[in-house]
Amino acid sequence: MRYAKSMFYVSNAKDVAEFFTAAFGLKAQVYGEGYAEVATGDTKLAFGTLEAAGNHLPGQPLAAAEADRITGVLSFVADDVDAAFQQAVTAGAETLREPADREWGQRAAFVRTPGGLVLELGNFA
């Protein structure tokens, strides 16, 4: 068995996937506005609308990412945290925490994507 992907529910899967392409150059595969995937190496990030998710999990209580709550963080390794942060903001991300050095030796920043997902961009030294 191997890990394949993580799926997140968002209001517009196409817009979120296109953000990852614009910000970080990750290849997106868009299957309409209801479902999209972004390649991140051996695994993928998948994004689906609640309507698309309902086709997979009918009758289950589902919720999409929301701008007023943080329900999780996706961490990305960046060789240049400041440049990755600027690319994300230029592509439309909201700044949650500008790049800063942490006392344990890591440099990290936090942004919220247009679809409401929170990303940590860090060097994880």
Automatic annotation (TrEMBL):
It comes from the Bacteria. Residues 2-124 form the VOC domain. PANTHER family: BLR0126 PROTEIN, BLR2520 PROTEIN. This is VOC family protein. It comes from Arthrobacter horti.
